[in-house]
DNA sequence: GTTAAAGTGTAACTTTTGTTACTGCCAAAC
DNA sequence: GTTTGGCAGTAACAAAAGTTACACTTTAAC
């Protein structure tokens, strides 16, 4: 755990804080597709992301989803922060996008460390800032762009997060995350293919130039 | 200022903190329609809302707007918090929805107080939580609901914030805030009127039962 | 090998939303 | 009083997105 922390959070956390994290934190590994938090859950610990990626989803009345954003190496979950402190239920679902390694920190430490360590405070505020910014980008996408542009952004984002220009998703899965229908996704993907920007295969999409 | 603070933030802030706020804070009054923050501005002080209401807006490439949420009595601007700490430009525009009274706090104090006062930390985290929740509600509206439902929510929200069932807005103004066109708003308002839920006048809308 | 299930392609159609254009009305300015 | 500009109503049309239906292919299960 020490190595993980040094690699990912050195220059961010003070040495004394790193020691404390090692004392109380527990290492957790989750497989791709595994659910970390469900809507309505009470959250009892806070994740620090070491490697992999986690997608954060919102759900509508019918149980359909919308992808909000991804968490990556060095990130933490801002929702969890507020849930921990406010003792409220989770408003979102968190699912591993890739095989992921996390350090879980008990929520009692949250409050203590925000008083004690300046580096922790900065980290927490920085996280809030990043998450708010990502929420704004999500709002921009939904409110200001058409589905074809949203699809392109989605594919670009997915490529960045997985670091792979071959995207292993079905049209149905993409439709869920964009909160639209499979037929619409197929239609728009076909158009992108005919423009030479992607190549379509069963269960996967190759990004050529987006 | 002492009275304002006692009325709105007692039980929230420690006495020592209230004293400090009085020392360094300045009272500010803004008229309805007045702009407080523009996109791209660097923010140098943090507002505590004493009375009135402020609307927070996002802008697209063409300069068209989208209403994100309102700030009310006892609120502060989460965007400002992160902007102050991160020294980044504002991502949003803030405009007074009503005549509004604020206490402005220099940003230098932010960092100091988060270390010093537990009540201040709680207030800041609470603010983040509320703003994140409101952003989620905004996302729900845009992503999951049709324009007719969004319009109803908008009218309900406006009634709540202004505490007045007579809404003094033109169709064009509503269209801007919902990021749609005037014709669409007129069409949907007319439908609501024919259902007996509202009454339409020039420059205003009376909410009967929504 | 046969069957079943999941994934994709596509046509035809509906609904929702956005656009253009034109009308009349009201209120402030002259 | 007349003019002017902003506001609202509405029709007609276009574009975007969602829906239904069905064909065909691939893969997994039996």
From TrEMBL, chains A, B:
Residues 145-210 form the HTH crp-type domain. It comes from the Bacteria. InterPro entries: cNMP-bd_dom (IPR000595), cNMP-bd_dom_sf (IPR018490), Env_Response_Regulators (IPR050397), HTH_CRP (IPR012318), RmlC-like_jellyroll (IPR014710), WH-like_DNA-bd_sf (IPR036388), WH_DNA-bd_sf (IPR036390). Keywords: DNA-binding, Transcription, Transcription regulation. Residues 1-76 form the Cyclic nucleotide-binding domain. One of its GO terms (molecular function) is DNA binding. Pfam families: cNMP_binding, HTH_Crp_2. GO terms for cellular component: cytosol. This is Crp/Fnr family transcriptional regulator.
């Amino acid at each position: 755990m020490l190595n993980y922390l040094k690699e990912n959070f050195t220059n961010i956390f003070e040495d004394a804080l790193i020691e404390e994290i090692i004392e109380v934190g527990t290492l957790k590994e989750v497989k791709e597709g595994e659910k970390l938090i469900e809507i309505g859950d009470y959250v009892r610990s806070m994740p620090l992301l070491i490697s992999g990626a986690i997608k954060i989803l919102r759900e509508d009345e019918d149980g359909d989803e919308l992808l909000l954003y991804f968490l990556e190496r060095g990130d933490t979950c801002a929702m969890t922060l507020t849930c921990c402190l406010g003792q409220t239920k989770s408003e979102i679902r968190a699912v591993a996008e890739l095989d992921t390694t996390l350090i879980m920190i008990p929520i009692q430490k949250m409050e203590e460390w925000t008083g004690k360590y300046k580096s922790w405070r900065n980290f927490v505020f920085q996280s809030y800032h990043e998450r708010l910014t990502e929420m704004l980008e999500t709002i921009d996408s939904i409110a200001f762009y058409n589905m074809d542009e949203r699809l392109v952004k989605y594919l670009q984002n997915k490529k960045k997060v997985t670091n792979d220009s071959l995207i292993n998703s079905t049209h149905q899965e993409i439709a869920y995350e964009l909160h639209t229908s499979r037929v619409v996704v197929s239609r728009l993907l076909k158009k992108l293919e005919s423009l030479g920007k992607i190549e379509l295969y069963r269960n996967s999409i190759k990004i050529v130039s987006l």
